[in-house]
Amino acid sequence: MKAESEKQLLKAESSELEQSSIGLLALSSKLNIGFDGKRATNNLTGLGNYSRSLIKLLAEKRPENRYLVYTPKVKSNLRIASFVETKGLEVKTPKTSNFLWRSFGILKDLINDGVDLYHGLSQEIPFAINHSKIKSVVTIHDLIFLRFPKYYKFLDRKIYTFKSKYACKNANSIIAISEKTKADIVELYGIPEDKIKVIYQTCDDIFKTASTEEELELVSAKYKLPSSYLLNVGTIEERKNLLSLIRALPQLSQANKLVVIGKETSYKKLVLEEIKKLKLQKQVIFLKNVPFNDLPAIYQLSKAFIYPSKYEGFGIPILEALYSKTPVIAATGSCLEEAGGPTSLYVHPDDDLALAKAIETVLHSTALRNAMIEKGLLHASKFNSEKITADVMNTYLAVMQENLN
Fold first, then answer.
1. Average pLDDT value for residue range 20-48
2. How many angstroms separate the CA atoms of 182 and 401, rounded?
3. Which of 101, 167, 190, 302 has the CB geometry, 3.0–4.6 Å to 105, for a possible disulfide?
4. pLDDT category, 399, cuts 50, 70, 90?
């Protein structure tokens, strides 16, 4: 059955590659493509991963183009250094002050560098770019700051709204990372549907290769991982809803531990108070400063990945779990069903009893686990790197073609 599942996965990827390659043949001349590279060169999580992955894929798969990455600064970090050294990339920093450079000063640099098209990878584009000859595309990840304003400071919310709304109205094309995000853009900003292209994200290729037994043993020993554990990965903040998972734990056997990995915020204090109240100190394990290269093994060793987030633009950790052959249990209400597919399990984010029941079901049914793993891996093939690269490049080509008509 496993061999058959992998054959189906390869067949699906091959079919998608064949379909997506048609559009790529249309590219007949070199494009100078500029990117908002602030997140790619400074952020090690969500938006940074998205930006690095996409730019690197384009540079590797479509090397005939020129790729210019604009950023106020470059953080000193091995992962970022590796990205910056990607063949075909040119990193551009401000010649003078970097204050508000990404919003205003950058336009002059784009013009001087002969950029044909600029891609705002994190919900904004330079002001007045629509009055230049440079075409623009913007990626909108989510509008959570409008759906759940209580999670954001007033000033931050106003800035995010102003920049993203301006970008949606003035960019030549919009990439939404999920159907849910597209629907939000249409509803909240009044943008026509035909201006928005849904192009899903993928996860890093490091999660797409099974760790060796030796690697699994080394990682398990390094972090003193329990023999049976659930996994939660993501910033420890209110929206990610870790409290719901903590409240589900008393309904499970104490043999099943919970491993939590994520950047800490003030919300962790509430989580720790709940853990103490429920006497779960020996059942919940927080791992800090986990190197990126160790994450795949931690996913693969877990019994299930639990993601009860109340709202997401997409949910890359779910893909990381699916590629790691780990069953996924997530929350309803946003786009997580798109990421996890029809064979993952979903419960209301505030129903900790239903969450506990779903976890018990997965842990105690071998047949269900195997089906979730095999069909989850097949679903993950919809987000393969080659298809996403082709879809993004075809979006660029469509924008440039409009310029010619």
1. 76
2. 23
3. 101
4. very high
Contact status, residue 309 vs residue 337, Cβ threshold 8 Å: no
Shortest CA distance to 329 belongs to which of 357, 365, 301? 357
The Cα 198–Cα 191 span in angstroms is 14
- Residue 251, number of CB atoms within 10 A of its CB: 13
8 Å CB contact between 119 and 102: no
What pLDDT, on a 0 to 100 scale, did the predictor assign at position 4?
A: 53
298 and 225 in contact (C-beta within 8 Å)?
A: yes
DSSP conformation class of 96: S
SS3 177: coil
The sheet with strand 229-233 has its strands ordered as: 284-287, 257-261, 229-233, 304-307, 328-331, 345-347
One-letter amino acid at 179 equals E
Q: What angle do CA 135, 137, 139 make, to 5 degrees?
A: 165
Distance, CA of 267 to CA of 128 (rounded, Å)? 39
pTM above 0.90, yes or no: no
> Structure tokens of 194?
């035909």
pLDDT at 29 over 80: no
Q: How far is CA 234 from CA 68, 115, 260, 361, in A?
A: 30, 36, 8, 24
Main-chain dihedrals φ then ψ at residue 112, nearest 5 degrees: -65, -30
Quote the Cα angle for 198-187-49, to 5°: 40
What is the b/e burial string over 193-228, where b = at least 16 CB atoms within 10 angstroms of the residue's CB?
A: eeebbbbbbbbbeebbeebeeeebeebeeebebeee
Q: What structural domains and CATH numbers belong to the chain?
A: 21-202+384-404 (3.40.50.2000), 206-382 (3.40.50.2000)
pLDDT tens digits along 141-163:
999 999 999 999 999 999 999 99
Enter the tokens of residue 387.
């298809």
CA distance 261 to 33: 35
- For every residue of 125-153, DSSP letters joined together read --TTGGGSS-EEEEEE---HHHH-GGGS-
Average pLDDT, the chain: 91
Q: Is the distance from CB of 309 to CB of 180 less than 8 angstroms?
A: no
